[in-house]
Design brief:
Largest sheet: 3 strands, mixed
CATH architecture of one domain: Roll
Low-confidence stretches: 34-50
Number of strands: 3
CATH superfamily of one domain: membrane protein fhac
Oligomer: single chain
Order of helices and strands: HHHEHHEE
Radius of gyration: 17 Å
Mean pLDDT: 79
CATH topology of one domain: Ubiquitin-like (UB roll)
Helix content: 40-55%
Distance between the termini: 36 Å
Number of helices: 5
Strand content: 5-15%
Length: about 150
């Protein structure tokens, strides 16, 4: 595919694919949301805004998926980044200890998040900024990491 498309188009195509996958996930979460007609208080509204974000996975669901992936020795199929408009993927990939093709381990994920949080160009990354998707047939896991970049200095 790289031979037919320029690099700037590949990055935008990758971003489009990620956004489509995340929007499908967000639609699934919205179907479990608050009942229509009920008025939510302020803290629930802020929580729901976060839930409808494409980078959100409920903590209980996330922890059970991570536990299952580590217990059954799932292999990391893909590591994806969302939110890095100015930061190159290579800069982020140099900081991560998780490697595609290796077995998933929770401890390495935590160390990876600590390494990424040391970067000055993005805000600190927490476990809540990570989304895990399992493929039970192939015993693989896709890890999606969401970032918020700091304002660039001019």
């Amino acid at each position: 595919m790289a031979a037919f498309y320029p690099a700037y188009m590949l990055k935008s195509m990758k971003t489009l694919l990620i956004l489509i996958l995340l929007s499908l996930s967000a639609i699934r979460h919205q179907s479990r949301g608050a009942q229509p007609g009920r008025r939510a208080n302020w803290h629930r509204a802020s929580r729901d805004r976060h839930i409808n974000s494409p980078c959100f996975q409920r903590p209980a669901e996330q922890s059970s998926l991570i536990r299952k992936a580590q217990k059954n020795k799932y292999v990391i199929r893909r590591i994806l980044f969302v939110g890095n408009e100015n930061t190159r993927d290579g800069v982020l990939r140099r900081r991560i200890l998780l490697q595609e093709g290796n077995a998933f381990r929770h401890a390495i994920l935590i160390k990876t998040l600590a390494n990424l949080s040391k970067l000055k160009m993005i805000y600190p990354v927490r476990l809540s900024d990570v989304m895990a998707q399992l493929n039970d047939e192939e015993k693989t896991i896709d890890v999606l990491m969401c970032f918020k970049e700091r304002a660039r200095r001019t």
